[in-house]
């Protein structure tokens, strides 16, 4: 049964639209504040994120609090129907704090303590910093607990990075003691007899450091350090929210993620957050085609929806025009702002928010896109684009709380990525875990088939297909769950470089793909790494059940496998392994498990997935071939379906809707047959559940 999720905060069951707002930068010219409110209403914005980097304006001296300006802003908000996503200020500290308590400053992996500077660089263990955060968070909660503008808590900003100070080293050792109990167990898990790295006392353990200064060759330790950094950051987050949960139990709590940032395993935040939020900054109109980039952005939206099992998320930041940190910063071309905003909604966002509301006058973000430019008025292209988004999402109330229920899941797993990145061999570069996942994902995006992007701990049972590209690490219990999935009729699609190590990055003994050998019905004996210029070829057998034909290119990695129980569908064409299996399928229980032994070209993926989609009767959002650059996504409440059509090309394109009739939610008209999508155009259509 599909359930509709409640709105982020039931007090306002509409799309949130707004951005990061820094009124403290304009304290000397409060007229700007009134102008801001006028412009917010004019642009159909209803939410502002405030306080993100406001610590020094809230506590200019230790223990001296100055909430006056924020009181004024919050009052102006509520008088004007605007809600506050209120931040805790831990993303940047006041200088007085760094001066008085140097322990709040991070120590980098080279063991040098930073100077007071920048932001996002606190020690996440420091008891003093935690205490200071707790105090200011408590003051904020006490002050605004009954304020009608308070809507969501925005905890800190873009947590990231790590700290290697003595306090963090101690916390790491404590975490390890708790995990392993004994040094013997730790030494075994980290395989430390290698290079005589055995630890004989806990105090000898130090976090990884760059070669040749410190340790980087113990892969089990590298993994555990990354796990610890996530653990400690989540713990820091939990400390931040203690007073908020107590004083404002009804106000939802979130923090903003950075896409597929590898410094933190975002899945570990899932249980602590009421709603997932992320910051999306694709470089449109850049070095890759917009539709290819659009597909990658969809991939990340899908992760964010899946982190809380399909619950709508917040697009906490995006730029209304350009960002300012890329090599070349391009404004969005006409149409792209609405398209990229609606794209988030199509994948499950219940908000469209920006960095930033008003451009700052000085410092390093003064040229970053904003709703209000330095000219200070509303007569700009960007302001009009933002207003258009505001007016558009006001028509989509029915979409709030709906979700996406794909038949297909793709595993993109943080820990697996960490382990792959750390490997030495078979290739040092072009390991390409993420882009391999994106390439498989794209086969569904171009056909308008929704996909859940999950990690390997998620429930597989609700899908028809689970795709697990390069599942190098197979954590405890995962193989069993994949076995069950296939046994009960599911289709598993696996590739080269799968089933190599366990949770500790220790190789499976007895033959790869380790615990997946049975379900896949193959044994991988060796792997060949190809130089960039080299190719092998995959040739399907005549009359193979997928009807693949011709010759496909294989590059970079070719697994040399033996079919044990599996049936061979294609073979390698050349080199000493010509004639050996390149694609296999294994019937297992009521399902099937495919193994792609090599990294194949786009044409292979296209033909392979086309055949699988047909065979398993996987539903497309619209039963038609979509033109290149157009995708279709769908959200549902179990009764109605909301179809989003998006054209990521600059030229207009046509989509055939067929006989089904739809209600166009943006103009109220009924449509069927041919639909024209303008340059970077969108359509949002409603139909009854099929
Ligand atoms: C991040 C931060 C914002 C801002 C933007 C600029 O997302 O959270 O404060 O710096 O980047 O793109
Ligand atoms: Zn530290």
Walk me through the structure.
The chain is of the alpha/beta class and 690 residues long. It has three domains: 16-166 and 218-398, TIM Barrel (Alpha-Beta Barrel); 408-616, Class I glutamine amidotransferase (GATase) domain (Rossmann fold, 3-Layer(aba) Sandwich), CATH 3.40.50.880; 630-688, Immunoglobulin-like (Sandwich), CATH 2.60.40. It is built from 16 helices and 27 strands. Strands 10, 11, 12, 13, 14, 15, 16, 17, 18, 19 and 20 form an eleven-stranded mixed sheet that branches. α9 (290-307) packs across α13 (433-445). The mean pLDDT is 98. Bound molecules: alpha-D-galactopyranose and zinc ion. Alpha-D-galactopyranose (GLA) binds next to loops. Alpha-D-galactopyranose (GLA) is lined by residues 157-158, 279, 281, 317, 323, 355, 365, 368.
Write a brief caption for the model.
By secondary structure, the chain is an alpha/beta fold. The chain is 28% helix and 20% strand.
C-alpha termini separation: 15 Å
- Biggest sheet, open or closed, and with what strands and sense? 11 strands, mixed
Catalogue the unreliable spans. Answer: none
Strand content: 15-25%
Whole-number count of domains: 3
**C-alpha-based Rg, rounded:** 26 Å
CATH fold descriptor of the largest domain: TIM Barrel
Summarize model confidence as the mean pLDDT: 98
Gross morphology is globular
Can you tell me the CATH class of the largest domain? Answer: Alpha Beta
What structural class should be given to the helix and strand makeup? alpha/beta
Q: What oligomeric assembly is this protein in? A: single chain
Would you identify the CATH H-level superfamily of the largest domain?
Glycosidases
Architecture per CATH nomenclature, i.e. the level-2 architecture of the largest domain? Alpha-Beta Barrel
Name the ligand types.
alpha-D-galactopyranose, zinc ion
Helix content: 25-40%
Q: Count of helical segments?
A: 16
The number of E-state strands comes to 27
């Amino acid at each position: 049964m599909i359930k509709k999720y409640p709105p982020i905060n039931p007090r306002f069951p509409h799309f949130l639209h707004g951005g990061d707002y820094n009124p403290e930068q304009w304290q000397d010219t409060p007229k700007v504040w009134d102008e801001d409110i006028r412009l917010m209403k004019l642009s159909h914005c209803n939410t502002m994120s405030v306080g993100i980097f406001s610590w020094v304006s809230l506590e200019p001296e230790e223990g001296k609090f100055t909430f006056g300006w924020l009181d004024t802003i919050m009052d102006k908000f509520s008088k004007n129907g605007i809600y506050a996503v209120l931040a805790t200020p831990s993303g940047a500290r006041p200088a007085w704090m760094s001066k008085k308590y140097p322990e709040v400053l991070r120590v980098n992996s080279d063991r040098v303590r930073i100077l007071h500077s920048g932001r996002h660089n606190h020690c996440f263990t420091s008891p003093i910093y935690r205490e200071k955060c707790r105090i200011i968070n408590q003051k904020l909660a006490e002050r605004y607990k009954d304020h009608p503008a308070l809507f969501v808590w925005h905890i800190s900003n873009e947590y990231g990075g790590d700290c290697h100070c003595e306090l963090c080293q101690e916390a790491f050792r404590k975490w390890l003691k708790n995990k392993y109990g004994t040094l013997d167990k730790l030494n075994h898990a980290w395989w430390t007899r290698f290079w005589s790295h055995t630890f004989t006392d806990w105090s000898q353990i130090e976090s990884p450091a760059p070669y040749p200064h410190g340790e980087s060759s113990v892969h089990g330790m590298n993994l555990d350090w990354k796990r610890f950094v996530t653990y400690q950051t989540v713990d820091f987050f939990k400390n931040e929210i203690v007073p908020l949960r107590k004083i404002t139990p009804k106000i939802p709590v979130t923090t903003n993620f950075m896409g597929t940032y590898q410094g933190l395993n975002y899945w570990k935040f899932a249980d602590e957050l009421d709603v997932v939020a992320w910051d999306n900054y694709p470089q449109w109109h850049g070095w890759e085609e917009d539709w290819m980039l659009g597909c990658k952005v969809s991939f990340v939206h899908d992760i964010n929806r899946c982190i809380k099992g399909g619950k709508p998320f917040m697009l906490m930041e995006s730029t209304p025009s350009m960002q300012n940190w890329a090599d070349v910063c391009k404004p969005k071309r006409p149409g792209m702002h609405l398209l990229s905003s609606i794209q988030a909604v199509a994948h499950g966002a219940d908000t469209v928010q920006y960095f930033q509301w008003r451009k700052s006058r000085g410092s390093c973000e003064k040229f970053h896109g904003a709703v209000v430019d330095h000219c200070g008025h509303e007569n700009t292209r960007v302001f009009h684009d933002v207003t258009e988004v505001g007016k558009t999402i006001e028509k989509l109330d029915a979409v709030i709380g709906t979700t996406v229920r794909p038949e297909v899941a793709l595993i993109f797993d943080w820990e697996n990525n960490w382990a792959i990145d750390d490997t030495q061999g078979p290739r040092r570069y072009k390991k390409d875990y993420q882009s391999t996942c994106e390439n498989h994902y794209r086969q569904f995006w171009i056909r308008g088939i929704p996909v859940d992007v999950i990690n390997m701990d998620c429930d597989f049972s609700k899908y028809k297909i689970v795709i697990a590209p390069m599942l190098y690490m197979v954590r405890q219990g995962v193989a069993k769950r994949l076995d069950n999935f296939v046994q009960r009729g599911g289709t598993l699609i696996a590739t080269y470089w799968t089933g190599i190590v366990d949770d500790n990055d220790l190789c499976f003994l007895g033959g790869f793909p380790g615990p997946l050998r049975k379900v896949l019905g193959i044994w991988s004996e060796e792997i060949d790494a190809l130089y960039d210029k080299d190719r092998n070829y995959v040739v399907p057998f005549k009359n193979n059940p997928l009807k693949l034909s011709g010759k496909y290119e294989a590059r970079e990695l070719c697994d040399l496998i033996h079919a044990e129980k599996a049936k061979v569908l294609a073979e390698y064409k050349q080199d000493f392994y010509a004639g050996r299996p390149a694609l296999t399928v294994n019937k297992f229980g009521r399902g099937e498990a495919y193994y792609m032994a090599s990294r194949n070209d786009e044409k292979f993926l296209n033909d392979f997935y086309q055949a699988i989609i047909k065979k398993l009767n996987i539903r497309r959002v619209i039963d038609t071939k979509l033109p290149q650059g157009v995708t279709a996504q769908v959200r549902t409440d179990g009764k109605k379906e909301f179809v989003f059509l998006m054209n990521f090309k600059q030229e207009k394109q046509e989509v055939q809707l067929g006989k089904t009739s739809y209600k166009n939610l943006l103009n109220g008209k009924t449509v069927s047959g041919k639909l024209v999508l303008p340059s970077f155009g969108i359509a949002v259509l409603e139909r009854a559940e099929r």
